[in-house]
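Lab notebook page, bench 4
Experiment: in silico fold of construct C2
Operator: M.H.
Input chain length: 150 residues
Purpose: comparison with the prior construct
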Amino acid sequence: MSDIQAAVSRAKALARAAGRPVFAKLRPRIETIAFDRIKPELDALHADIAALRHDTEEATKDLDGHVKWLYDEQRRLAPHLAALEARVAAFERPGSVARLAERLEYASDEADEVRAEHARIRARLAAISKYEERLARLEEGLAARPEASS
């Protein structure tokens, strides 16, 4: 069996040696034919990538606008929230409610209303914070993609 395997190996080596010049002449033609056949598919893929890139840029612009709006809203609401927190903190301290109620002329049901509004504002700011964190993660993900830098 080893004589047959040796003969096959020698025949393969001779065929490779004899075929090298022929393949060297045929290789550019084969590559040209292969490229011509693949070119329409490559063009279609390039067009798809360009469309996706355009869509991504539009979505990023929209998100940027939303983030700026949310940031402005948060800046606008911050002083109001600070004032409400100070008022609620005064109501939460025992003994100071009567003095504060006399000074601000708040009734107990108004204090409850202020507490409820304070809770609503905290919930809104928490939602805004979560939304901003999510947007930041999405922006980091887009920036990390190699296509985004091209």
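Observations: The chain is about 90% helix and 0% strand. Residues 2-149 form one domain.
Next step: discuss at group meeting.
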